[in-house]
User: Fold these one by one.
Assistant:
Number 1:
Amino acid sequence: MFRNQYDQDMLTWSPQGRLHQVEYAMEAVKQGSTVVACGNQNCVVLAALKRKQSKLSSMQGKLFGVNERVGVAVSGLSTDSATLVKLLREESVREEFVFGRVASPSKLASLVSKSLQISTRESAGRPCGVGLVIVGSSEDTGCQILQTCPSGDVCQMWCTAIGARSQSARTHLEKHLDELKVATVNKVIHIALRALSESNVDSEELTSEACELATVESNLYVSKSPEEVQVYLDQL
Amino acid sequence: MIPRRTAHERVIGPGVVPHGVDPEHDALYRGRTARGTVTDEVLRGVRGRPFTIDGKAREKAPATRTQTPYVTGTSALGLKYAGGVLLATDTLACYGSTKRYKSVERVKRVNDKCAIAFTGELSDFAYVCDLLEELTTEDFCEDDGTTRDAEEIYQYLTRVMYNRRSKFDPLWNSFVVAGYDAKGEAFCGTVGMIGTHYADDHVAAGFGNHIARPIFREFYKPDLTEEEAVEIMKSALYACVMRDKQMMNKFQIAKVTKEGVSIGEPFAVPTEWGYEKFYNPTKFSPGGW
């Protein structure tokens, strides 16, 4: 039943110096549906594949607006992500109330990181099985993509893809990395959607129902409606 | 000797009051015992309540020691010019009306983008400085390369002041906040004791609001040079020191520019007390003395 004797709690190291619980949590992220983010200084695009619980249910949303400039995509345990999204939104509101500022993506990412990291060194509870891709912009930095992982790690990325079969999306993004650095929003959206379709279940075409799209451009996070997504899909 | 009520404060307790001595007090406490309604006849033989200080009740009562200021600074002025913002205060902290501490720097540099000047209670300002230091340290630890700009500090102080006011324990200060906002434009604002706030091209906190601002209104224009701004500031300080008994003739002007904050050395302005009307100041104000 158990993989080994060192994975029962957060406090026990394996002799190889690994924390199995954290690694399991990272596996949970790989089980989640795919999220792709790519862009440059001026614009960033988030695209995600949605899933449904059963044929009878509706699709589960994966992109969440945090404030007017920042949005987040999640992959992994959706209930864990709900807690983190709530945390982000609350912090964002607090920042706006206390300092009159829209919270910057880097500040929000470091907050998530702290919250995730704590759960990797306390015996009570478990690490969150969710990966976040935070996109947004701030005056100082321009557009940013920040990726978090259950260990509390935060990386700033030009492009990234997390979730199931995300390797093929990453390969696609790597090929277009130079192109992305000078691309317009439309171009970035096309690359993101192509990368996403690479990760889609074999030979299935992307539908506007099954994928979600959001952009950050000129300091504004905009979530695209299914109709708009369809327009972009038709252009592919 | 007839025992008398010694304390009237509700939190300290009613004091020693035997029944019959103070009919008003009897009426107040009639029927308030645990056993239910007690008539005058029953109470007649009962001894008065002992004088006690109810510690629990005192803890519940709001603290009042900070509700009057003790050591205070008076006006603080702020004025934008083409290359930045000026702040001006005198260096006096008064104990009541006594000019007690004469070399107090009433301006604080918050960071490179922001400085504040205060009026009101000196110790409360020290507390606010602690809060701002904490904030700066937090930001430094965050290490994301950003510092809070003047507009954020202004908003933060507003929240702090309003929050304390809502606890019925206000910080006895008002502030002038000067510096740069997120867009890199000069910012000048004031925060009042209860969280009232506004930003303008020139502001004044304290008594100077009545004296300096008319001067600012008359002479301010958006393209003031630093020299012109300092001149206007000095004439405003002169007007203040001539009329405000809690002000002394030792001033500091601080400036916030793109290069950062610099707080100038203390200086005095020439004063003139020989005006004719000073000899008989109430000559034209009937009813004065």
Note: The mean pLDDT of chain A is 93.
Number 2:
Amino acid sequence: MTSKRTSLLIPAVLSGVFLSGMAFAQQATPQYGGQLVYAQSGEKFTLFMGRNTDQSAQDVWLNACETLVDMNEKNEITPLLARSWTVSADRKKVTFKLQEGVKFHDGTPFNAEAAAFVFNEAKEKKFLYISLLEGFEKATADSEYEMSFHLEAPFAALLPTLGYRPLCIFSPTAYKTKGEAGLATQIVGTGPFVHTKYVKGEYTLFERNKEYWQKGKPYLDSIKIIIVPDASTRTAMLERGEIDRTVQLGDLELARLERNKSINVRTVPSTRQFYVVLNHRIAPMNDPKFRIALNHAIDKAGIVESVFAGRGAALMKAPTMTDGVVAFTDMRQPGEDTIFPYNVAKAKALLKEAGYEVRDSDGFLKDSKGQRLRLKLWTPRGATKGDYQVAQLVQTFLTQLGIGVDLTVMESAAFSSAMNQGPEDAKYDMALLSWGIPTADPDQPMMYFTHTRAWKPVGANRMFFSDAEIDRIADLAHVEIDEAKRKEYVRQWMARLLVTAPVIYLPTLNLGLAGRTYLKGDQILAVDNYPAHFAWFDKAEMERQGVRR
Amino acid sequence: MDFLRRFAQDRVGLAFSFVLLALAVVALTAQWIAPYDPFAISLRQGMRPPSWTNWLGTDQFGRDVFSRVLLATQVTSKIAISSILFAVLIGVPVGMFVGYRGGMAEAIVMRMTDVLLIFPIILLAIVIVVIAGPSERGVVIALGLSQMPQFIRITRGVTLSIKEELYVEAAIAAGASTPSILLRHIWPNISAPIVVQATLTLPVFVLNTAALSYLGLGVQPPNPEWGQMLNEAKEVLASAPYLIIGPSVALFLSVLAANLVGDALQETLNPKLKGRRLKRPPVFGPARLPGARETGN
Amino acid sequence: MLGMIVGRLGFMVLAGLLLISFLFALFHIIPGDPAVLLAGDNAPKVVVDAIRKAYGFDRPLHVQYFTYMGNVLTGDFGVSNYNRQPVLGIVITRVLNTAQLASLAMLFAVFVSLAFGSLSAMFWGNPLDKVVTVASLVGICLPVFVTGIAMIYFFGVYLEWLPIAGMATWSNYILPVVTLGAYQAAIFTRMVRSCMIDALGKDFIVTARAKGVPEIQIVFKHAMRNALLPIVTLFGLGFGHTLGGSVVIESIFNWPGLGRLMVESVQTRDLPIIQASIFFFAIIFITLNMIVDVLYTWIDPRISYD
């Protein structure tokens, strides 16, 4: 049955080969018209930006709701609703000059008052993103098109944070009349598309905004974002042409799709890195030597090769930070391909220094009193691509050292809950998680991941790690505006992490996007965004592939 | 002896009882007969198609799929058999009793089965796991509970119709006790649908074990289990279809064997049925009755 | 009979309300906090607390419970925890979608299994019987996600005959209905065959044959009527399973049904949706059982519920 089916697939792949000549067309002038169908793997929670940080929602918002500044494919900040900005001498006030003549979809004007309202309301009502805007005091409308941000202390990461999609400017009028609940199913912004329909768990429909302020844009008539949870189904739909693009496909599937000449597969490094959180309140995980030993015990290249088919993830060049992050420095030792290279001998030596070695023929790691070392490792399944598989390998590698590892796969909501406990209530020894930096700015991990003030439940320091030097560097970097100085602080911070190893560092994820080749001008960003609001269809190519829409 | 001789006459049943026996042997000796260590990873040898060294290929981590299928036989059969026993040992007596007695007890039990049936197994499993922690025992309880109502309902349905039969009424009139009626008159009629239902439940359990393992409520890695392997293979079905062969064939073979042996047992164990069937003339053209000579006319 | 139906309806509502209460308690016991899920993994405590306050999760449990139950009694099932839409509308659309899929699949399964099951019994021991038996065994052993994906690739991607996902046109129905129906048909065929063989061996059949009643009439009238009781039980149960167990089919063919909604809501701990889904699921299921019981008395007039 199965083998027969494979042979059936071959003609389908071959038929794609004949189209290969036309696949890579020159950058041509955009053509107007058509409906883009984009399949996402899931939809969670709400359409209201103030109450949702789910990554998939961002691709929905950006069609209808725009931020003050935009982030491009090179992670550079570019003007969007804000044309330009100036920073005051004491760095506590940033003034934005806004686009003029822009209207929200409900017809009300976009101006400084509207923009200021959104941020002040966010602070007042504690929107989810407000924790990222540290030190934000208030926003004021200085004139019709001039708005100022007032900060309690200088904040280096302000602009990247303002480019984070949930911080888009929605219509204050719509908000006041419909309330948060009304905006949970309706996006009212200034974007190139007007949100016209929403069916929970099925699809969201956008239609071209005829009065869009960027003349000549957008090109498509409409965008339909549909929810298809099953990856195999999304793949088949893309192969058939029922959808134009999709994300969150398995890495092996991407490798197969790449051979289909009607399909264009793109991969970029993300800002998300896996790690195993170690609970420092449990011995021996409070011992840096022990933690560094664990770091050397994991074959990272093997993980990339097997779980991610050599393409869905990459070795890490620095702890937590990735290429795409601002002020990044490669922290690898010369000649090495990753931080903490796989070295079992070194791991064993460090464990011995930490007081653990294999003392009997049973092969188990024991302390001086002959006590066996047994640790619990918790993992979700499917929260992040490959998490469950990575956890299994971590278990295997640690078992090879003689550590007893009990792996428990948890239901995702229960896992979230278990990982959201303060130091007294946390029950895990180790847990597999990943850290993504949606703003692509190092401030976020420095302040919320490793800082002593960020111990759960206040922040996201689940290790209950505390290091005065790390905290001091983070505080300095937080207020440093000078790029070079800040970069140096970030480097020092990372260097200190390599010595203290608060977690087990694991590979960095790559993002994948698969789309039909007739779709032009869509993007894939390191911050896990896949904008297609300025995309367009090559009609002739579409016709050749037999797709009608 | 008589039973064995009659059973041996059913060649299909006999052949597949050897298959079942072989599976049982595999289940009992998996650790020793596996060609490779089912847990040994070799990350650079992952996703290899079947070859002479790895008969069913290797999985993502380079583990030998054949060895893992063998070990999974053990894990899966332990769970499936325990769950079926759990469901049958409680479901059948209860169904027989309430079907025969009727009245308030029947009403209450039947409504309870209604509630159990409408309760999705995922929720059921979550409750159990919260109480007992993720384990194989939790799976057995959840699966057993989920199918127990089926056994109660089927048993009760048959009991309802049998107890109206003349010979049962005659036995009641003659003063036979309830247990003796249940055992002597009702049970022989129930065993057939129960055996069929139990064999049909087997694949249901195997697949549900997979669903529960998927949610992290069942078999914990790195232990292999057919359903879990199927689930993992499904994700890469189009790219690496060979991964699904091992667990599918194992699952298929065990279910087929369980069904055919069940059928054969059913006919052998129920001489009344068998005698009657042998008397029945073939309908259209010659029929080959199990264990009987050609009786064409 | 009427008393039975009224009693059942009463039970239905009671069972539904009990289930809702049970779910309420259950989802406050098991780990998983909607505010934490909404806030995201790395959110600080102030933000989580703000959500609790904004969405009313911080009210005392008994207040939440009684407010909710009071509303349910007036037919208001509340709003989704997250997108604040009325739950009733969402759930009813999904119930109808699932009911369509399940009914069509059941119809397919019933026809196929009655036809092949009785044919198989008629030709008991013949090659035809063997073919049917083996085919139904194969059907049972193949997991629906394997057959489903195989169907998608063969009819959807390779032949391009049928659409893959969604429920936009009638042709969208074919693949999911056949995939789900075939699995059920395989299960039913075995049961029908076994029941029919049993019935064909009964003394009255022997008598009928002796009297010279045509074989077709014997099989489809006398024997079938006798075998119907267990078969109807099985169909009743099967329908319930088709309804509840179509989650996999719904996910593979991207069918916007109740099963998928329920699983997604459990993952996000959207309690009002879970409660309403299970309430309606319970009502459908109890109604089905009631129909089965009514059919019993119709098939076998000796059974009574009074």
Note: Confidence is low (pLDDT under 50) at residues 271-297 of chain B.
